[in-house]
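pasting for the record
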Amino acid sequence: MIAYFLHLFADVGLWTAIGVTLVAGLMRGFAGFGSAMLMAPIFAILFGSAEMVVTVVAIELIVSLQLFPQVRRHADWQTLTPMSIAACAAMPLGVWALASVDKGTIVTGVSAIIVAFVLLMWSGWRYRGRRSAVASAAVGAASGAMMATTSVGGPPVLLYLLSGNDPPAVNRANIVTYYFLTQFLLIAIVLATGVAGWDALARAVVLFPVMVLGAWLGGRLFHGLASERLYRNVALAILLATGLFGLLRNVLVI
């Protein structure tokens, strides 16, 4: 076992992943979003798409376990319940796509999703419809399928949840709680179907302390006097650069 982890640490790609994970933890701890979008395209390039999904989701799950007790009292359960149930129901379809689609297409897809999300956030576009059980379930289904295929299921949920007039603490609680309610099942499905192996979880074991450290530091920033608007713009700029890198990298490879 020790020899196995020493072998992992000899991988240059893992050290790149450690740096990316630390930045992702800062983003997740402060605003509750952005970590998976930052890690997914880079991890897909480093480790492969199926391995990326398990590694990213497992890391995210650890952070969710850490943050959920702090935010659960602020969560809007009326919205989150149908959304989470629909997301879990849609995950098998996403896993089927994960097993059927090649790595290059996954990198392109997840990078395009990130770029589109950032541009929508910067444009000021907001969902204007009424929040209802049906609308929440539709958003959850889209998110669950995307999460299983790319590990990035956040954009539809974020655009939906951030469209209201909820205070930042409620938005953060809803996002953290949604991930907490859905990630267990996704890991179980991907591993049970054999789409990804246990090596992906081993990487998560190495990376999650880095993520937890970043999330803790980000949480301290959230509870301090940091400018939320400044942070969000910086976070979105990082995500845009990551998405463009994934798109351009994939084009060059092809």
